[in-house]
Amino acid sequence: MIIEPVSFGLVGVGGYAAIYLRVLRSLENEGLAEISAVVIRSPEKYPAEVEYFKSKSVTIYGSFDEMIEAERSRIEVVALPTAIHQHKEMTVKALRSGFNVVVEKPPAVTIQDLDEMIEAERISNRFCAVGFQLQSKAVVRGIKEAICEGKIGDVKYVLAKGKWKRLDSYYERNAWAGKFMCEGKYVLDGTVSNPLAHYLMSSLFFASRERMKAAYPLRVRAELYRGHRIEGEDTSCLEVEVEGGARVFFFATLCSPFQSDPSQRIIGTKGVIDWTFGNDAYIRYADGSVEVIREDGRDERVELFRNVIRYLRGLDENISCPLVMTRPFVLALNGAYESARQIKQIPDEFIIRRKEGDSISTIIVGIDEIINRAFEERRLFSDLGVEWAYKTEHFSLENYKYFSLRL
Ligand SMILES: NC(=O)c1ccc[n+]([C@@H]2O[C@H](COP(=O)([O-])OP(=O)(O)OC[C@H]3O[C@@H](n4cnc5c(N)ncnc54)[C@H](OP(=O)(O)O)[C@@H]3O)[C@@H](O)[C@H]2O)c1
């Protein structure tokens, strides 16, 4: 089908913005998108990209504000793969200036910021899509559809586990990585808000039997830890009770000795769904039969932008991850910090730090087994009696509207 290419204004070309650039170029090759303008605030760092855009006669701006001002009514979508604590201000400004927006995940880390963004979107007559790319993945959408059709009955539990390894270089890549706050704003960078956030978002999505909806959290019990020498958390466990009666368990670390693909399990009254990222998902019914939901091998990052383009051109009915759908996620994130009250440093005796390439890895001794056990038994680390774990209380999110925790 031939459509008019959607014009994008891209902010940044390094870090995760380099992925946006790759995705948009591949959609340009398909004739679906056009990068009409780009913001490169430090051109000396990106000579190849500057040369590329000059060769294509794409306007390069030195700042976001300049682009917003100059490109009004020319660009259709502004893409914001920028620092977490800049998301709200940039999204609100872009919406108020008449642009649609794709903002990276997490859209915001406080519920007051997210609500401001939702309100700006509502009155703008434009849309904001969020870069939770799993929501654009066929297998994730297939799992959700199976749940909505009632194939596994009522959802009782949704489980997620993610065990990744991040070196010190990961935290040295910019000013905000691993921070609780940056430039006076909350960042809450960590497993819950950032690298493994996709799986908390998808868990809440699976916990609701309504299409296009993630389940609202009612109360949260959470423990937050750090193994690395950082300000934020790099290891977490959450129990989230949601509307409709399901319980979500999320277990994550960036201090694993190995990098493994995250897994999810959804336990219903009539069957269980198991899925590991990159693979098919399996529905196991009570009578022993098994149904497969296929992984289609498509790049979900490209699909996210394809969906935005198709939505704008009236070919898709919905945005796969609209801003408002992420409200339960941000509430659960805030609830996790309110319940945890602290980020506990794991004592040195349980940490191994060793040189890897030009950097240093941080491993929590036994963390893989701890997370596997927590996942199977649906218990938080302190419930398992892990030596370094601490007990926390449930935090109720009833009428919760403002995050203001200081550690
Ligand atoms: N969906 C995913 O799987 C995934 C994976 C990784 C990261 N992310 C998300 O992507 C976002 C960006 O992360 P990152 O680590 O790449 O961040 P970053 O290093 O701070 O920024 C990425 C790029 O944006 C540019 N930039 C940032 N703020 C800008 C501004 N105000 N004006 C102009 N350019 C600006 C940077 O330019 P300079 O180089 O000049 O600083 C850099 O090129 C975060 O929300 C993160 O959570 C998502």
Report low-confidence residues grouped into runs of 5 or more: none
Q: Provide the gyration radius in Å.
A: 21 Å
CATH superfamily of the largest domain: Dihydrodipicolinate Reductase, domain 2
Give the structural class. Answer: alpha/beta
- Beta strand count: 20
CATH class of the largest domain: Alpha Beta
**What ligand species are in this complex?**
NADP nicotinamide-adenine-dinucleotide phosphate
Q: Approximately what portion of the residues adopt beta-strand conformation?
A: 25-35%
The averaged pLDDT comes out at: 98
Any idea of the CATH topology of the largest domain?
A: Dihydrodipicolinate Reductase, domain 2
Give the biggest beta sheet: 10 strands, mixed
Report the principal-axis shape: globular
Number of domains: 2
> How far is the N terminus from the C terminus?
54 Å
Which bin fits the share of residues in helices? 25-40%
Based on the coordinates given, report the CATH architecture of the largest domain.
2-Layer Sandwich
Question: If helices are DSSP runs of H or I spanning 4 or more residues, what is the number of helices?
Answer: 11
SSE layout and pairing:
Layout (H helix, E strand, L loop, with lengths): L5 E6 L5 H13 L3 E7 L7 H9 L3 E3 L2 H7 L6 E4 L6 H10 L3 E4 L7 H14 L3 E3 L7 H11 L6 E9 L4 H4 L9 E2 L2 E2 L10 H10 L10 E10 L8 E8 L4 E7 L9 E6 L2 E6 L4 E5 L4 E4 L6 H13 L14 H14 L3 E2 L5 E6 L2 E6 L2 H11 L17 E2 L11
Parallel strand pairs: 1-2, 1-4, 2-3, 4-5, 5-6, 7-12, 10-17
Antiparallel strand pairs: 7-13, 8-9, 10-11, 10-20, 11-12, 13-14, 14-15, 15-16, 18-19
Helix pairs in contact: 1-9, 4-5
Bound molecules: NADP nicotinamide-adenine-dinucleotide phosphate.
The site of NADP nicotinamide-adenine-dinucleotide phosphate (NAP) has 24 residues, from loops.
